[in-house]
Amino acid sequence: MNLLTMVMQLLQGMVITTEVFVLTLLFSLPLGLVVSFGRMSKNGLLRILTKFYISVMRGTPLMLQMIVVYFAPYYVFGVKIASSYRFIAVIMAFSINYAAYFAEIYRGGIEAVAVGQYEAAKVLGYNRFQTFFKIVMPQVIKHILPAVTNETITLVKDTSLAFAISVAEMFTLAKQIAAAQTTIMPLMVAGLFYYIFNLAVAAGMEALEKKLSYYR
């Protein structure tokens, strides 16, 4: 197999990797915000439940969570698992896992906003919804971007865990080609692809940080 053919095959897997990455962010970022509200809720039961959820998601391996999400419909409800469910299970597992991490990042950012900001908004006649989304949230985004960037870069690499339930993303294809051709070259090329992907993500997040650093 020549290098061009190998690269083209890996690019097919890169499409799956990119889909997992994008869909996970699409679902986990807003879900993390909702979970952070529960974590800071005045309702004791809701606060305990969300704290337990975060503890489980951060305290158990993502690979195990994928396996549970994939096999739960069969073992819990007796539902036959379709092969198309593999990709859905990956997205679900990744989303609920990363939502727990993003929830704590959001919480840290929200609690970092001075109480005086809320009081000033109240004086100006803002309701709670307006206060949060017009005054608090823009400041939170500025504060949490470095932490979100770290998690996003980690997500790019974690997509390789999808092999646990036989979703053929790029690294899985690289391992298959390497085994068939008895060479580590596909793994090196895959590593380069991950590096370029992360460079692009880091550059995009850095540009966003600079755009929001309007007081510097």
Overview of this structure, please?
The termini are far apart. The protein has helices spanning 3-39, 44-59, 62-77, 85-112, 115-123, 128-158, 170-181, 185-212. It has 216 residues and is an all-alpha fold. The radius of gyration is 21 Å and the shape is flat. The protein has eight helices and no strands. The protein has one domain (3-212): MetI-like (MetI-like fold), CATH 1.10.3720.
Topology diagram in text:
Blueprint: H1 3-39, H2 44-59, H3 62-77, H4 85-112, H5 115-123, H6 128-158, H7 170-181, H8 185-212
Helix pairs in contact: 1-2, 1-4, 1-7, 1-8, 2-4, 3-4, 4-6, 5-6, 6-8, 7-8
Summed up:
With 216 residues, this protein is mainly alpha-helical. It contains eight helices and no strands. It has a single domain, classed as MetI-like (MetI-like fold, Orthogonal Bundle).
Q: How many domain units?
A: 1
Query: So, CATH architecture?
Result: Orthogonal Bundle
Mean pLDDT: 89
Describe the global form: flat
Order of helices and strands: HHHHHHHH
> CATH superfamily assignment?
MetI-like
**Rg over C-alpha atoms, rounded to the nearest angstrom:** 21 Å
Low-confidence stretches: none
Calculate the terminal CA-CA distance, rounded to whole Å. 53 Å
Main sheet properties: none
Please write the CATH class name: Mainly Alpha
% residues in beta strands? under 5%
Percent helix, as a range, is: over 70%
What assembly state would you assign to the polypeptide chains in this entry? single chain
How many strand segments? 0
